[in-house]
Amino acid sequence: MEKPPRLLSHPLLLKNRVYEVTLNRAQLTWKKLQTKKKRVSRSIHNSRKHGSVCVPVSEILAVRETEVDGRTESGGRWQKTSQRPAEAYPYAFTVSYVLRVKRHRWRCRDVTFQCADAAVRQQWVQAVRDQLSALAGRPKHLLVYINPHGGRKQGKQIYEERVAPLFSRASVSTCVIVTEHANHARDHLKTDADLKKYDGVVCVGGDGMFSEIVHGLIARTQRDAGVDQNRREEKLAPCAIRIGIIPAGSTDCICYATVGANDPVTSALHIIVGDSQPLDVCSVHQGGRFLRYSVSLLGYGFYGDVLMDSERKRWMGPVRYDFSGLKMFLTHNYYEGTVSFLPATDGSGTPRDKTTCRAGCSRCRCSGPLGSEDGQASGTGDDVSSGEHGGDWRTIRGRFLAINAASMSCACPRSPQGLSPAAHLADGTADLILVRTCSRVNFLRHLLRHTSRDDQFDLSFVEVHRVRKFRFTPGRCESEGDPWPAPGGAGPAKGLFGQMCQDRPAAPPPTAAGTATARYSPTPASTWGCTAS
Ligand SMILES: Nc1ncnc2c1ncn2[C@@H]1O[C@H](COP(=O)(O)OP(=O)(O)OP(=O)(O)O)[C@@H](O)[C@H]1O
């Protein structure tokens, strides 16, 4: 492939050695001219061949002039750059760039070059700045919401100490709002936020906080586009503004599944370089009324119960999930009902095909907002209420311990493969996982497989389907007019969608009887992040 033409090339000093430094539109490279001892790089990405280092321009964060005495101002602090600057190279500049380290983590690395005269330095600083400003998709102004109560209550500290200095170095301006109550961010986005001023919204918190922001942004987008959220046949308008996630929650599954790591610095760097990852959004309706959106897991039965119970034990911190998980495992509730679903066919793959959705996933690219399957995904003529028992809809009746719909792998550090390892982030489908009633021992086997590499669907009581829409009707609802399915065994009946969601409830549990329908829309939202590649 033809190399882009050189923009600049000079011998410059780096750590008292002279390097040939070259810039073109694609990359910045530096290669040692005086070879002495071989140095071993700790970088596993920024390629270093025969003593040369190559950084893609798209991963340069900033460039700045360095003081003559070898110091550079960085976030208000002065840093030493070199102990022995050669007298012949008294003018310095520093380039900050992304260093890819282990386990999909990114770090900010500085390299300081020294020039023989001021004009050369000026040329370099200007040339690098010109290249950076020509890059599309990099944010300049961000609206940041911090949940000070998420996870270990360190959201504010994480942002101030690890993220804000990076934004400032990359000249990204921010408006920071520390939330004062639940749904503060959602309501502010819905009505008050002047979104035209921003290139993106950043969420500092966990999955619940992300869900708030998704609800606020999607509701605002639909209102502006004249889309009625209550009409489930309507196609959702995609959000024009991206959401960045700085993980500061308990599980941070959405961050892990989109970026490949739960690391605030990595996420901040993805935001700065303008990486983008589209996401499917699932809309859930009941009785002609919109209930909520979901981008990760819709869980009814075991997972819904765990999340609902753990919500009441927020004071315990992240350990609440273990406590509630054990409690619900011992309770061993089951739920009777009918699941109907529209299978995703035509090359959508299967939940067991062992593919992993990564940055640039070809499947998701084909099914993007302008994808040819859009009509099918949004259900032309496939109205669940009218066409459910015709066409390609399938129906399964039975007793279930869990009914989960995973719109993404739902991977997190505890379950690195996730609930459905092959689920795609943006193909307009979800993996519907049905766990039928079984013994506690068998259920434990199923749960333990989430923490290992074993095929979690290879069990006789578990089935999985890739779907575009699905519907759940509680068993007793139809026959007895009882709105909610009673858990198998003793205990009070529980609200249908009060039990649902990894994405925390953004709407109150429904009060009317009925069936809930979930529909997957390809990519109405996107995050700054790039699936681990
Ligand atoms: N200032 C606040 N006070 C109380 N609750 C808040 C505040 N701001 C946001 N919330 C709510 O806190 C809930 C949980 O927050 P978040 O998702 O950030 O943390 P988490 O639940 O610990 O993490 P995870 O969702 O990853 O398990 C969200 O549903 C959000 O609505």
From TrEMBL:
Cellular component, GO annotation: membrane
One Pfam family name is: PH_CERK
PROSITE patterns under this entry?
DAGK
Q: What is this protein called?
A: DAGKc domain-containing protein
Start and end residues of each stretch annotated as Disordered: 372-391, 478-533
Q: Name one GO biological process term.
A: ceramide metabolic process
Listed GO MF terms? ceramide kinase activity
Q: Coiled-coil annotation: which residues? A: none
Transmembrane region(s): none
* SUPFAM superfamilies found in the cross-reference section: NAD kinase/diacylglycerol kinase-like
Q: Which stretches are tagged as biased composition: Polar residues? A: 523-533
Q: Residues in domain DAGKc?
A: 137-288
